Structure prediction request, 522 residues.
Amino acid sequence: MPAGRDEQVIVIGAGIGGLACAVELARAGFDVTVVERAAQAGGKMREVEAGGARMDAGPTVFTMRWVFDEIFEAAGSSLEQYVRLIPAQILARHGWTDTERLDLHADVERSTNAIAAFAGPDEARGYRAFCDEARRIYETLRDTFLNAQQTGPVGLARNVGLSRLGALMGIRPFETLWSALGAHFHDARLRQLFGRYATYCGASPFAAPATLMLIAHVEQAGVWMVDGGMQRLAEALERLAVSLGVTFRYGAHVEAVCIEGGRTSGVTLADGERLNADFVVVNADAGAMASGALGPAVAGSAPPLLPAARSLSAVTWSIKTPTAGFPLVRHNVFFSGDYAAEFEDISRRRLPRAPTVYICAQDRLHDSCAPEGPERLLVLVNAPANGDGAGLSEGDLAICETTVIDHLHRCGLRLPHGLEESVRTTPAAFNRLFPATGGALYGAAMHGWGAAFKRPAAKTRTPGLYLAGGGAHPGAGVPMAALSGRLAAQRLTEDRNSTRRFHPGATPGGTSMRSATTADTA
Prediction:
């Protein structure tokens, strides 16, 4: 039963989760206003300007395209009408020294041959077995957990079904990713390469469950480059939402979520303006709400994120620079010599003394196409989420920059001007952008078998208040955040319909007042 336009929803935050939620709710007939304190949509999917050029400074990998295809198709459109996607033929190029390089390809057969040439036929056979296991884990969890409302172990078993309990045990939740990789690979470099998938959700491969092998299958199913940068994806969702009647208010900081009669009734902005609503969706880190960042009335609506449970942060450098030597592709990883020591350093709240370095070469849309002259790079190393404490000193950061340049040089990549002209973002800066997180970029770390079940669900303890975003179920990453938005919209709509069935004369929430609109950004 479609909603009437008198039922209002405020979505706090125009990140990918909030955008997907707004689209789904507008499609269901709700009157939706998205309130965002920044000047544009995207959240962590952000851009910065360096060297006179705009470039991605947040997520750079686009996978699980089916999530976005479904969102656009359900709204009567298509993703291709809004963005141009280019499939990556080389998923990533990996280096250890200037003579040790390995490409993973979109074609599994090509990757198998590359691994055989790099580490021998036994490792290639291990890779095939690893791919098969990653696919089975993904197929077991896609619709029973990732694309379903948050549940516990019993609920997951129910979703999987009694006839497939063997498949459920096959997700290997009680082993670490690092130990499980040892069953497939004897070459430490390959364990390092595939262990890195844990960092996609801000975790250490030495503590994350082996279940995260499924990320390998996600990449093999397709990695796309968004022409013009990842920000175009956020803009596409924004334009789709506007076409469905969603109102966006930028530069509007929410001071508090309002509660009346035991349920949400709207929000108060920092300038004192009150926006009434029947429902509120918070597309922000749940830990920020628990800390009181959205007012004391809702601080108990989500569990706090303790510093020890935080996911990884990062230090990034956005730069436009000439490059030489190493033949960059879109995604490049330069591994440290001691992966265990790298994550031990982070666990001790310090920068790795020998970090792995990721580089997204954003002008490399095709594997064989190198730009003429300077190119746009996002350079990233993992860091502890200590941006709300003593943080990292300028001395620490200077040492890290020198270490990064030296390591890249050993791997064959030369940046003639170093990182001097870059725009640097530290955990402290990430904490300012995303308050009360310490700079953690992925919510809670996926450490231990029960971590996935502890992520906040879409429905909070406060009636009428819902959560979306990478800190909520099903987890971090661009497609997962979009799924969280869909799940929040689904749960909200189900709750509204249930209220209508059992209380047909009731109108949830307080008095509604349509908020001011902004200009159409389509």
